[in-house]
Amino acid sequence: MKKYTVNKFIAGMANFLSTALSPLLMPTYGVFLVFWVSVLCLLPYGQRVTHLLVCMGITCIIPLIFLNVLRHFKLVKDIHVDVREQRLIPYLFTAVCYGVSAYYLYYWHSPRWFVMFMVGSAITVVVMALINLTWKISAHMAGIGGILALIYQIHTQGLSAFNLLWLLCITVIVAGALGSARLALRKHDTLQVLAGAVVGFLCVSLTMRLLG
């Protein structure tokens, strides 16, 4: 009985982490970080909240609605899209949404590095879509990898409002917990988890560094 309780607790925590750190929420978390820990925290509060909500609508709400439409027509099994063969259309649609969000930020004269964060996120999704044609890679880890890259670039390029070393350390710990959660739920193996993190980090980091 005790062993069952422990396993149930671990599964519950793993599901909580997977939901709270859903790939669809990662761009929203990224935009939040940009507006609250980078030099852009000096912008008026109302302006920051407005841009955050718009980006959330484009990169999270719209893709979520699209996933539910696909589920309604039985084109995907569920909104988590656990079946690798069903991931191509949702991934490409999500990449387009990220691109639209990048254009929105560009239209409002956001700093180039900020726009490139969203472009890098779109590139990440496209790369994952291509990889998933033959191999199931972790979208959750790609998302947290992108967030880690964002914080790292803000920190190393002198764009932070204060020292972000502590936030980098916390994000690494959270990424490790998320990877463990995906393994505990048996959604991925170790290599798929590591590959997702590497793809997310490299796509966002290189895009911001080279084009931002």
Describe the 3D structure:
It is globular, with a radius of gyration of 17 Å. It starts with a helix and ends with a helix. The chain is built from 8 helices and no strands. The model is unreliable at 1-6 (pLDDT under 50). It has 212 residues and is mostly helical. 41% of the residues are buried. It has helices spanning 2-20, 26-37, 45-72, 88-107, 112-131, 139-156, 165-184, 190-211.
Radius of gyration computed on alpha carbons: 17 Å
Work out the number of β strands: 0
Q: Helicity, in percent?
A: over 70%
Taken as a percent bin, the fraction of beta residues is: under 5%
What distance lies between the first and last C-alpha atoms, to the nearest angstrom? 55 Å
Q: Tally the helices: what do you get?
A: 8
Spans where pLDDT lies below 50 across 5 or more residues: 1-6
The biggest sheet amounts to: none
Summed over residues and divided by their number, the pLDDT gives a mean of 95
Shape: globular
Run of helices and strands: HHHHHHHH
